[in-house]
Structure formats: structure tokens, C-alpha cells
Here is the input.
Amino acid sequence: SLAEKLQAAFDKLRGNVKLTEADIDVALKEVRTALLEADVNFRVVKDFVGRVKERALGESVLEGLNPGQQVIKFVYDEMLALLSGDAENPGQASALNFAPKPPTVIMLCGLQGAGKTTLAGKLAKLLTKQGKTPVLVACDIQRPAAVKQLQIVGEQVKTPVFAVPGGDPVRIARDAVEWAEANKADVVILDTAGRLHIDGDLMTQLQGIKSATHPHEILLVLDAMTGQDAVTVAKEFDSAIDVTGFVLTKVDGDTRGGAAISVRSVVGKPIKFVGVGEKMDALEPFYPDRMASRILG
Amino acid sequence: VTGRGRIDDELFEEFEAALLAADVSVTTTDKILDDLREAVRLERLPDAKAVRERLRQSLTEALGEAGDTRLKVAPSGPSLYLMVGVNGVGKTTTLGKMAYRATHTDGKKVMLVAGDTFRAAAADQLAIWAQRAGCDFIRQQERSDPAAVVFDAIQAAKARDIDLILVDTAGRLHNKANLMEELRKIGRVCERELGRKPDEVLLALDATTGQNAVRQAQEFIGAVGVTGIALAKLDGTARGGIVITLREELGVPVKIVGVGEQPADIRPFVPQVFIEALLD
Ligand SMILES: Nc1nc2c(ncn2[C@@H]2O[C@H](COP(=O)(O)OP(=O)(O)OP(=O)(O)O)[C@@H](O)[C@H]2O)c(=O)[nH]1
Ligand SMILES: Nc1nc2c(ncn2[C@@H]2O[C@H](COP(=O)(O)OP(=O)(O)OP(=O)(O)O)[C@@H](O)[C@H]2O)c(=O)[nH]1
Ligand SMILES: [Mg+2]
Ligand SMILES: [Mg+2]
Here is the structure.
């Protein structure tokens, strides 16, 4: 682990009172490698390591800590601050924004295969448990059997599914909101087709769904094993539709999840939930401290 | 000043940035650049242009011999390709494209097997691909044992004179012991019924995946053996550089590339083309 590597690097420096710049550089080389291996974007790593260096320079080694432990503490603190967005109450960050007057519209978007349809079902289940009456909307009419997949998911979580065979995603979304208003469904969950951030037509379609429904939450769904590309994807989606937050999926895998740091620091929106399995109850709020420990290995 | 650029630290920093941005691992990147520095010295490379060319060459070589990318065909009876991988990476879609090409372009008698008996509408999704390909299709009830589906499919394929059996499996995270055991069982059934290992065990990998691809490959190789990688979603901005590490450290070659969601969006893997895109 990074902690062990830093211990080893600093073993010969025991007894020092102050960290010299040379000591810090040795440690930061290990930190850089660990973060890159954890899939943190390499430009984000550069900035991050620069900030940790600033903090470490000139600081006295704390009572009871050796230099290696000291650097780990700076790295962990810096990462925690980044992931929680310095929120007064980190738990606050993962709360969903509800509309002052129902229905609340939640739009899910992201690359192909990220876990949107599965997440839609999980959110419906969570919201039902919280006493809400959600409706799932099948805005993906292009992937083979996508509508059927959402319908089966809807059955599993006992939530109605609004689907229009052969419809147009923007119209389906608009009609679904009208349906929700008429039928007292207070949350509309829009499941959209996976798309590339560089697909002009599909990004325009996403903007169309947004203008037609004015979502209170626009969640970019991102696979936790995404590598360096996470920054590009997050930036492009954010600039196209101004996301309100992220959901990291497949966190039950063993990927370190450095993409979390990358998107949080570059786009500055909160990570609200993590998907931790394929079942409909496998959804947890995002805990910055757990993620920081995981990324640091 | 030759206009072809100086060989200096800045040049190597540019190379390092390009490789890391492409998801090549830190270890592989360091090794490639160390070898490159050595080559500059030993081969007396004159300028940046020559170094760039040398880098292109060594990366292409790292991806293996030309023959490695061919898909194996059984000497007699049906060939069987098993598609495996973690969730959502493109297994079903890649298999559908392969069925389409094998049927329409190669004139083969193909059977698609719905070995994912777990995920919602998995078999329905593959059924649509079988319709597009115009090929044979085997499915059973949801929640049936995937090994049993594969067993029945192989018997049917032999009876119907099928040339190529394409077996889809459920997405599974490699750190889930029970799911990997299920996969081992599927592998054993294939081997027993064919009298040999599957002709290809393709690990589907999402081009956006970072270093975790190494963990995935290690576990799938251990469970069922992997003969090649199907690298999907290369039409995005991710470069899939981790496959260089997979080839170098685990010896697994990329055989197919997915470049979109339509039947025609599949290509054989060509190292030169791949490295060209990576270094851009
Ligand atoms: N292990 C695990 N699997 C997940 C998780 N979330 C989704 N999946 C699986 O990932 C795969 C893809 O999920 P989908 O919900 O179909 O993804 P999608 O984003 O809707 O895909 P497209 O609509 O094609 O873009 C499925 O096999 C899901 O069961 C998770 O948190 N953990
Ligand atoms: N752009 C692009 N999308 C792809 C490609 N291959 C697959 N997809 C899309 O990725 C999503 C997931 O593909 P699937 O084939 O369902 O993936 P899978 O591995 O079978 O998923 P699970 O069975 O749920 O584990 C779908 O929306 C596909 O259309 C590709 O090469 N390019
Ligand atoms: Mg979907
Ligand atoms: Mg599938």
C-alpha cells in the first residue's frame, strides 16, 4: 500500500524534526505513482501533488509521526477535502434535490454500459422507501430490448414504467412529466440511452430532453473502473447539460476508483451515490472518507 | 535547427503524457521510455522525428505478431467462441456483430447462445441480434443454469451442422468468487462437450477502463483461460492503452475491436492503426 511504501522510503530519515524539500520529493514520487495506478487523471495528479507539496514544505513533523506518516496524513486530508468538496456536512452532498412543487424530475445520463438502467430501478426503490411515488421513463428506444429491460426492472421495484413504442425520446420525456402530473407521481426518473460525449446528435438530444423537462437532478452515471478518459467525459457532459452530480457504479468491484477524484476536482459537482451490486437494493450514499482510503490503497 | 525537433527532457515528457493519458500503466510507460532512451543512445537517433518513429515502432512490436490477431477455427465440427467479461463492457453487442459478420460476410452457419440467464432482458437483447444476423438462436428460461444452456446448445449445434457457436455469458465482476466459479463450470461443460477447450475465450474490455483491466484479465485467465481480447467502444475518446500492458505482462493479444453500436462496427485488431490513434 502507499502507506507502506512511504514508510519504507522514509525509514532512513527517522528522527528528523523538519521535512526537507528533498524528503518531500521522494515521498511525492511514490504518491504520484500510487495515484496514477489508482486511475486518477494524470493532470489532476500533477495539481494534487503540487498542493500536497505546498502544505508539506516547512511543516514540522507532528509529535509521534515519522515523515512518511506525515505525508500520508497530508495526502489523505487533501483527498478528503477534495472528495467532500469541503462540505460543512459531507453527508449533505449526497442528498437529492427535490422540486418545491412535484413532480421532481431526475435525468440519468452517461456512456454506454455505465449502469443507468440499473440505477434507475435502484433510485425508484429508494424513493419508494422514502414515501415517494416515482415513475420510471424509458427514454432509450435504440438499444435492443432496452425498454423491456426497464419494464422488468420496474416490476422488480414495483414502480410503473412510462414507455412509448417507437416514440421520440424528447417527446416521451415531456409526455411522461405530464402523465406524472396527472397521475400524482411525484418523482420522474428519466433513463436515457448510453451515448458518447463526442456524438453531436445524441448530445443535442440530451439537451432536448433537458429543455423539455427541466430536471432538478441531472446525474452523470460513471463506471468506477473508468481510467484517464473520465475527465473528458465528465467535462463534456457537464458543459452540454450542466450536471448536478455523479453516481459511481460497480464500486463492489476491486477497482481503486481514482476517477472519483478526477471528476470531482475538474467539474466540481458532488458524487451523490455509489452502486455496489446488480440487485435493486445495492445503492449507497457516497462516503468521501471510504473512497479516500480506497484510492490510497 | 533541423525543424525535426530536439531530443530533450521536454520531448520525453510529451511522450510520457501521451502514454499515461492513453491508460498505459506507469510501469509499462517507464519501461518503454527507458528502452527508448537506450535506443536513442545505441542507435544514435538524430532528432525528435526519428525518436517518435522509434517509439511508434516499439509500441507496435509490444502488441505482438500479426498472426496473433486471427480468430481460431476448429479443424472439424463447430468452432466455439466463449465471450466473458465484467458488467456492461460490450459482450452481447460484440457477439451480435460477430454473428452478423460471420453469417453475412463469411457465409457461415452461426448459432448465438444466450448464456446470460440472469440479467433483465439479456436473452431478448441477444435475440434481436440473432434476428439482425439472420442466424440460429438458443435460449432457455430466465434463471436456468447457464452451463445447462451451453450444454444443450452444443448438442443442438452438432445436430444442425453449425459452423460457429457464439456463447454469451452474464457480466460478472472478477472479485465475486461464486460468479467466477459459475464461469469455470461453463468452461468445463464447453470442454467436455467439444472434446477440447473453446476455440476462443474472448475477454471483452471497455476501452474506457483503466488499470483495473489488469486485475480483470488476471482473474478471467485464471478461471477459464483467455485467448484474446475484444476491445469495445474504441469509437470514444479513450485509447485503450492498457492492452499494451496486457500483452506484455500477461501475453494476451487483442483480436477484435468494437467501434460503434451497429452490426458493421467491428474491426480486426491492427496494431499499427491502434498505435497511430494512441499517439495522436
Ligand atoms: N456489479 C455491479 N454491476 C452493476 C452495477 N450497476 C450496474 N451493473 C451492471 O452493469 C451492466 C450494465 O448496466 P445497465 O444498467 O444496463 O447500464 P446502462 O448504462 O443502462 O447501459 P446502456 O443503456 O447500454 O448505456 C448490467 O450487467 C448491470 O447489472 C453495480 O453497481 N455493480
Ligand atoms: N459506442 C459503442 N458502444 C458500444 C460498443 N459495444 C457495445 N456498446 C454499447 O455498450 C452498451 C453495453 O453493451 P452490452 O453488449 O449490453 O454489454 P454487456 O457486456 O453484454 O453487458 P452485460 O451483459 O450487462 O454485462 C450498449 O449500449 C451497447 O450498445 C462499441 O464498440 N461502441
Ligand atoms: Mg440502459
Ligand atoms: Mg450482455
In short: Chain A touches chain B through 42 residues (CB under 8 Å).
